[in-house]
Amino acid sequence: MRLLTLLVLLLITLPLAAQKKASKERSCRIIYLSAPAGAPTKLHLFDGKTSQEVELPRMNLSGPYTLPPGRLNLRMVSEPVANPKKLPKGAPHAVVTTNVRDFYLLVTTDSKNTIAPVSLRLINANTDRFSNGQILWLNLSPHTVKGTVGNQKLRLPPQSRRIIKPPANSRANYPVDLSFIITGDKRRHPLCETSWLHDPRSRMIAFVFTEKGRRTPRVLAFPDFRPPPKKGKP
Predict the structure, then answer these.
(1) How far is CA 130 from CA 55, 83, 218, 229, in A?
(2) Which of 178, 109, 96, 174 is nearest to 137 (CA)?
(3) Cβ atoms < 10 Å from Cβ of 174
(4) Which of 51, 107, 141, 189 could form a disulfide with 46 if both were Cys (CB 3.0 to 4.6 A apart)?
(5) Closest Cα partner for 93 from 125, 57, 122, 52?
(6) CA 43 to chain centre
(7) What is the mean pLDDT of the chain?
(8) Phi and psi of 116, rounded to 5°?
(9) Over the stretch 32-46, which tens digit does the pLDDT of each residue have?
(10) What whole-number distance in Å separates Cα of residue 66 and Cα of residue 185?
(11) Segment 69-115, tens digit of pLDDT
């Protein structure tokens, strides 16, 4: 009887422990926008205890990287760090607060940083805010962006973000028609007129940003599909 009781308790405890462990998992995907020629394609991400080599893709999101729970002060360095006391001073950094469980790490160029020539920006992507089918827009430009995405109106002031609802009800193409307004100029200048494919299984992150030597901002959007966990696994 005692053995049976212990077995029942074990069967109850294991799923709860697995669920607790899964809830503490933290994922990060990386994108390097507007990387210049010769910029690094890989660096090492240090989480305060250990470092891991990470990719810095230009035209897609990296694969998900797992990071520990709790408050983190992430550092990006050119060489792996085994001893936190030997972490180079001035390394590019980004603070992850305890409540951020899922995020993107936006990498841009900082040629003045001698440790790693990049700067980091954290973008909160918790699923309670940003779910499948939705689009997270980030306007990193100094211009106001206006237009339509599917049948929704979009307005993005400079340096702003907005999450919009799914632009379609199923897997289908939808129109994207955007323009931008330069500060002090009331005219609307064409920015983007195209169609994108909606995948209800995937969320999407879209950037509006400027590049040196270009008057018109660029628009780049990246799908973020996460395969569902296999049956029998948390």
Answers:
(1) 24, 36, 23, 19
(2) 178
(3) 16
(4) 51
(5) 122
(6) 17
(7) 88
(8) -150, 125
(9) 999 999 999 999 999
(10) 45
(11) 999 999 999 999 988 888 999 999 999 999 999 999 999 999 999 99
